[in-house]
Amino acid sequence: MQFCEMDRISGKMKEGIGKAIRKVMLACVSMAFLFPCSTFHTLRAQRQDFLSRSELLLRGGGMNYIGDLNDQSVFSLPRLAFGGGIRYNYNNRWSFRGEVAFGSVECKEDYNKLRNLSFKSDIFEVSALAEFNFSPYGPGATERLWTPYLFGGLAVFHYNPMAEYSIGPGETSWAELQPLGTEGQGTVEYPDRKPYTLTQLCLPFGVGVKARLGKNFSVAVEYGFRLTWTDYLDDVSTTYVGKEVLEAHSADGALAATLADRSSEVVEGYENAPGIKRGDDSLDDWYAYFHISVGVNLDMLFGWMRSKRCKY
């Protein structure tokens, strides 16, 4: 009798343990299905929030150069520029944006006609910027539909100064100036003058005004400077080195000598002696970028791509 009673108790314990194991397995299976769906809902909500706060930006305007050849004139010879990017409106005071810009700068000096130097350069820029709105700005009822703002950040830009020269009666060509070493870069006579790099960092900063046009569109007008760490945006910085040094430096030495000292094109036979000031190396070159931009809300553009799965 005692053994039968123990078998009956043992059977009930096994049955209870089996039920508990089945319940745990059922809970695990349920979580395996529900967790991805819940996670998907969370990620989808985060993506929707990002899209609703973000804008695709399209820009058009101009660039101009500030440096040795234009006597620091801020609005000298603007040239066409355009670009685009993404703006993320973090809150009604701060926005962050990443963008690219394409443009060009050029100058032919008119205040020092004897020096007679000129250049042009295409510029490609990639930047990460922050904006601070002076007024609460956004689509909400308590926020203004327009605001002035400040911006600043960090950018990488590529440039390549070139100069035009005559190759015959009525014919001209363009030469890249950096490989020529027009101020003695890379020569034995001037070991402290190294070839400058064509990809550099700069600090963008400036001001703008933006306005919201309904829920999904915005427009902005902006003017900003780019503070660079190079004085060779125009290929002009230090002193003349003399044509003998340049002509002996490479196969293109004669062309380097011609483009380094162009005073003889103004006064026949005139030549600047080595050591005479060619540029001002105490100040680095700048460029400015001004534009009008249109912003389009990303939720309007890409909201239709949201998945309809995991509704429940």
Describe the structure.
This protein is 22% helix and 39% strand. Strand 8 and strand 9 form a beta hairpin. The chain is elongated and about 90 Å long.
- β content, as a range? 35-45%
Order of helices and strands: HEEEEEEEEEHHEH
Helix/strand structural class: alpha+beta
**Multimeric state:** single chain
The CATH topology assignment of the domain at 56-160 and 198-238 and 277-305 is Porin
**How many strands, what sense, and barrel or not for the largest sheet?**
8 strands, antiparallel, barrel
Give a short summary of the structure.
The chain has 312 residues and is of the alpha+beta class. It has a domain at 56-160 and 198-238 and 277-305: Beta Barrel (Porin), CATH 2.40.160.20.
Defining key terms:
elongated, 4 helices, Porin, 8-stranded antiparallel β-barrel, 312 residues, two-stranded antiparallel sheet, 10 strands, alpha+beta
Give the topology, please.
Elements: H1 2-53, E1 54-66, E2 79-89, E3 94-108, E4 118-133, E5 146-159, E6 162-168, E7 171-176, E8 199-213, E9 217-228, H2 243-247, H3 253-260, E10 286-297, H4 298-302
Antiparallel strand pairs: 1-2, 1-10, 2-3, 3-4, 4-5, 5-8, 6-7, 8-9, 9-10
